[in-house]
Amino acid sequence: MTYAPTPGVVISEVTALGPFFALHTHAPDARPVEPWVPMSRKLVEDRVSAVRGWLAAAGGQPLDAVEVRVAASVTHLGLAARLLSPALAAFVLHGRLLAFGLSDVYWQPVLGGPVPLSVPGTAVSAGAVAPEELTAFLDGPLGELAAAIGPFSLSPHILQGNIASALNGAATMIATVRPELAERTRTAVTLLLAGPPLRGSATTTANGAFRRRSCCLIYRAAPGHKGSLCGDCVLHRNADSARSR
């Protein structure tokens, strides 16, 4: 008889992978009390302002020194990683899909680390799904997140690169914590990167390293726009000219 874990077991095993995977759950018709708040479009926009202030303070700069689009990209990357990581893990662990809309998510918008997330207890699919169904997650809550970031006019190229980077980061963390899942994880990631909407957003270098084809812009948050580049940044191939812009 095939083992079929309950949704609670799936959530528990996903959470055990680390803080970027951790999930709380709430009843579908419940409204969690504060400090939980819904992941509304307005609060995502407010998050951009908060992240901008946090980046400015971290660099000892006035607020105006940090471009709004930089804060918007950093916000999008962080939230995309937080939403995508447990979804990838649920599939890799048990072939399950996490199905929920952005409006179903409750969070605590703390700064400086992975935000606490709560999803409906019914979010875990009843049975295993085909790998292709993972793309529904990219079109669902991540598509809604991109729309919420829309007022800040980030290019689709940057948004797609952020998702690809978040996906690769989640895969790396899963493989580190559970090495026996590395091959299955990489297979799922390769499938997602090869199809819409992520096709062309990343590549693999000659030495096997993951490289996104856009920049998340965080280096521009540092004084003089001279911050360090992320390990997967496209600008590594021409860092000097990138920093002189």
Quick structural gist:
With 245 residues, the protein is α+β, with helices and mostly antiparallel strands.
Q: In CATH terms, what is the architecture?
A: Orthogonal Bundle
Q: Please compute the radius of gyration using only Cα atoms.
A: 18 Å
Structurally, how many domains make up the residues? Answer: 1
Low-confidence stretches: 239-245
Average the pLDDT over all residues and give the rounded result. 91
CATH topology: Transferase(Phosphotransferase), domain 1
Main beta-sheet annotation: 4 strands, mixed
Number of helices: 8
* Proportion of residues in extended strands: 5-15%
CATH class: Mainly Alpha
What string gives the helices and strands in order?
HEEHHEEHHHHEEH
Structural class: alpha+beta
Q: Which percent range fits the helix content?
A: 40-55%
**What topology, given as strand order, has the largest sheet?**
1-4-3-2
Overall shape: globular
Structural notes for this entry:
This protein is of the alpha+beta class. It has one domain: Transferase(Phosphotransferase), domain 1, CATH 1.10.510. It is 44% helix and 7% strand. It has eight helices and six strands. The strands form two sheets. Strands 1-4-3-2 form a four-stranded mixed beta sheet, with no helix packed on it. A two-stranded antiparallel ribbon has the order 5-6.
